[in-house]
Specification:
Blueprint lengths: L12 H12 L7 H5 L2 H20 L3 H25 L4 H15 L1 H4 L8 H18 L15 H14 L7 H21 L2 H21 L4 H25 L9 H17 L1
Helix pairs in contact: 1-4, 3-4, 8-10, 9-10, 11-12
């Protein structure tokens, strides 16, 4: 088979990447692994790549971000190639779809609507346009169309926002805090008296209300927990460093010592 010179052209741009993916999926001359994949097997990689983009941004690693964005773009190309093979859609139709959507959702930029609006009013208008789009897709229920594949906390917030738009929401954070106390009590009761399945259900209820509190406080719960994860990693690494200076590892320490070191590290961060 004669190789398309575009594949080896460093300036080939998007057509080059599309041709590379077409060749990888060629049933006779492509890569056996790539040929075997389908939408379901590739979807987890798509999610993983999106998280790696977010991770590079959180670390302000712009060189890494360039590579991760390429990896994420490849996922779109991969799904588009499979869509082409199955006759569902093509890369061009995917591009046309998102382009049409952006134009339709920004009438204040690409149409006659006024740009003299607050960010809040533009957000409200955006939601009205999206609601009309859902109606066109026969998504009539309030919670229709909230993607199942979203991270749990992100999806919880999206569900809550949808319900809030039709009035199903607390009007103050005190009410949410009262609900957290109630759900905490129910979790303790489940732990002491009920099955593991019921414990999981009660724990989920508590997390859902915690996500609601985050929304009322204007906090992104996913960002908040990522921030805490990073803090824990940083502080525990400092604990390991202090133990190493004593000629010890965490396995050679105990909770009391490591907890005391944690407090030292925490205090040092506040003083820095």
């Amino acid at each position: 088979m004669t190789e398309n010179p575009l594949i080896h052209d460093p300036h080939g741009g998007m057509p080059r990447l599309l041709e590379i993916m077409r060749r990888l999926r060629d049933p006779e001359t492509g890569c056996p692994w790539d040929i075997e994949q389908d939408f379901n097997t590739i979807a987890p990689y798509t999610i993983e790549e999106a998280y790696e983009v977010a991770d590079a941004i959180a670390r302000s690693d712009w060189d890494e971000l360039e590579g991760e964005l390429g990896d994420l773009l490849l996922q779109t190309v991969y799904h588009s190639q499979m869509g082409t093979e199955a006759g569902h859609f093509t890369f061009d139709s995917v591009v046309r779809n998102i382009s049409d959507k952006m134009v339709a959702r920004h009438p204040h930029v690409f149409g006659d609507a006024s740009r003299d609006k607050s960010a809040e009013q533009q957000t409200a208008d955006w939601e009205k346009i999206k609601a009309a789009e859902r109606a066109g897709k026969a998504q009539q229920r309030t919670l229709d169309g909230v993607a199942l594949g979203l991270p749990g906390l992100t999806r919880a917030v999206k569900l809550q926002k949808r319900m809030a738009r039709v009035g199903f929401d607390w009007d103050k954070t005190d009410s949410v805090l009262d609900k957290i106390v109630e759900e905490s009590r129910e979790l303790v009761e489940a732990r002491d008296q009920l099955s593991q399945d019921e414990v999981e259900a009660e724990f989920g209820d508590l997390i859902f209300v915690m996500a609601n509190l985050a929304r009322h406080l204007g906090v992104d719960p996913e960002a908040a927990v990522r921030r805490t994860n990073a803090k824990v990693e940083r502080r525990f690494a400092a604990i390991e460093d202090r133990l190493a200076a004593l000629g010890k590892t965490p396995n050679q320490s105990d909770l009391a010592e490591m907890d005391a070191l944690w407090d030292q590290v925490k205090a040092a961060e506040k003083d820095a």
